[in-house]
Specification:
The chain has 495 residues and is α/β, with parallel strands linked by helices. It is built from 18 helices and 19 strands. It has an eight-stranded mixed barrel with strand order 10-11-13-14-15-16-17-18, surrounded by six helices. It has a five-stranded mixed β-sheet with strand order 4-5-3-8-9, with helices on both faces. The protein has a two-stranded antiparallel sheet with strand order 1-2. Helix 4 packs antiparallel against helix 5, helix 7 packs across helix 8 and helix 11 packs parallel to helix 13. The longest helix is centred in the N-terminal third of the chain and has 43 residues.
Length: 495
């Protein structure tokens, strides 16, 4: 423990508060002589307080890691060799806590840490960082290259993920590992080495479970880019740079527009129009996802209201909601309030839910929210169906009304017999469950025609229209309506 001398003002308030009480007590017990003694004692007490050692806050664990790495790097600079740093992140600790409880989770993590300590060489150190991740620092090593770093990362990864038996029975955790070799940095320091390993660890966590990533300059640039996008996102919303674009959906029976899907675009002042794949990774898992969802909801319902005023028929708009938003107990009421604001009935809104959200047991709050949203009259689409592990039981637990067949099954469905079999199976399942179907990523007229023949109810994709801003969608809707009217007139004349 280190000590420092405090400033007098650190205790001034405490002294001031106790002097009146002490004075009354001394006067009652010893009279005026006692008061004189107290008056003399107070300055002496204040002086003594100024000389007493005052403990500082304990050193942050990350500071201990960097100090250790700096020590190792100092030895390397004189005698040679190399070192490295690893960051281990346990996958989905919140989910693990919900499943096991805090006590069992702590026991499991403690057992994993004990295993890791046993797998390290003499001189290697293991630390628990402030965010719950682990850091491993290597001792000075004469022959250390990237191949050896990969093998060490794989060993650490394997040690953590091996099943273990605790008092409650067999348990298992998964983790992601990021690492950095000291020679990968132009000017290695303890802080720079830890930061680089954390960058690699965060990248590995994006591809969990069980991913391993090594540091690279490209990775650092990508991280910096995501950080910049995350930092500027809220301001971008305020400036109106985050806008809803819309992609039409058609009924295969009538050819009418059966709905539109809202897709986010960032009209960046320097980088142009950014698709979700560019900026969503930067804000996923943060409160910014809720801000994005509310922005998209407001703009989508405003677009529907505008179409109604112009006499354009668009039955519904589909809006994507993140798992984080679906866990908000206030979401159904927020949807109801926003619908009322634009004087729209709930049936005009479709909520899209990823299949990964439905897979497994499902979060109780999410199940309840989706049920409440469906009870309001909103539609609920299961997005990217076929890419996850949703069972029939899980699908039935949620109040779904439509399956969206992922584009990976739609691509070249008119040419590939295996694709046709898969799509036919999905359509048959949907029919038995009483669910509508929509095929995403329809890019050719042949795919469109075959999907209609197979019984898919709705289609969406580039062969129909690309996503477009609302100001472009208005004339597209008018032109599509005119084309349908012309086709109907031609048909009548032919008869």
């Amino acid at each position: 423990m280190t000590f420092a001398f405090p400033r007098l003002r650190d205790h001034s308030l405490q002294i001031a508060a106790t002097v009146p009480v002490a004075g009354l007590l001394v006067y009652w017990m010893a009279g005026e002589a006692g008061l004189l003694a107290l008056a003399a004692a107070i300055p002496l007490g204040v002086l003594a307080l100024g000389l007493l050692p005052h403990p500082r806050l304990p050193e942050a664990m990350s500071d201990q890691v960097t100090a250790r790495l700096d020590t190792v790097l100092s030895g390397i600079s004189t005698t040679g060799g190399a070192t490295g740093c690893f960051v281990i992140q346990f996958d989905d600790p919140a989910v693990l806590c919900d499943r096991l409880g805090r006590t069992r989770q702590s026991e499991l993590l403690a057992a994993s840490i004990a295993r890791l300590r046993g797998a390290l060489r003499p001189g290697d150190m293991l630390y628990t960082l402030e965010d719950g991740s682990l850091a491993v620092t290597l001792t000075q090593t004469p022959r250390l290259d990237l191949e050896i770093m990969v093998r060490i990362a794989a060993r650490l990864h394997l040690v953590v993920q091996q099943p273990m038996t605790l008092a409650q029975g067999p348990m298992q955790v998964t983790c992601s590992v990021g690492f950095c070799h000291s020679k990968q940095l132009a000017r290695p320091t303890g802080r720079a080495l830890l930061d680089a390993a954390q960058v690699a660890g965060d990248e590995a966590a994006r591809f969990r479970p069980g991913a391993i990533r090594g540091y690279s300059a490209d990775l650092a640039r990508a991280r910096a880019d995501r950080d910049a996008l995350r930092t500027g996102f809220a301001s971008a919303v305020e400036r109106g740079e985050i806008r809803a674009w819309f992609q039409p959906q058609l009924s295969t029976d009538s050819g009418e527009v059966s709905g539109i899907e809202a897709l986010a675009r960032w009209h960046h002042p320097d980088r142009g129009c950014l698709a979700p794949g560019v900026f969503l990774p930067a804000i996923e898992g943060t409160d910014l996802m809720e801000l994005l969802g509310q922005t998209m909801l407001t703009q989508s319902l405003a677009a529907l209201a505008e179409f109604d005023r112009k006499g354009l028929r668009v039955p519904t708009v589909a809006v994507n909601f993140s798992p984080q938003e679906l866990q908000d107990p206030q979401l159904p009421e927020r949807l109801r309030w926003t619908l009322d604001r634009f004087q729209l009935v709930p049936s005009r809104l479709t909520v899209e839910v990823l299949e990964s959200v439905v897979a497994g047991d499902g979060d109780a709050v999410i199940v309840s929210n989706i049920g409440r949203i469906a009870a309001m009259g909103c539609g609920v689409d299961l997005d990217d169906f076929g890419t996850g592990n949703a069972s029939i039981t899980a699908i039935r637990r949620f109040a779904l009304n439509r399956l969206k067949i992922d584009r990976s099954f739609v691509h070249e469905v008119d040419q590939n017999r295996e694709q046709q079999k898969l799509v036919t199976a999905i359509l048959s399942l949907a029919e038995r469950l009483g669910l509508e179907t929509l095929a995403e990523g329809v890019e050719t007229q042949a795919e469109h025609a075959l999907l209609a023949q197979l019984g898919c109810g709705h289609v969406q994709g580039y062969t129909i229209a690309r996503p477009m801003p609302v100001e472009d969608l208005v004339p597209w809707l008018a032109a599509h309506s005119e084309r349908r009217a012309q086709a109907l007139r031609i048909g009548l004349k032919a008869r």
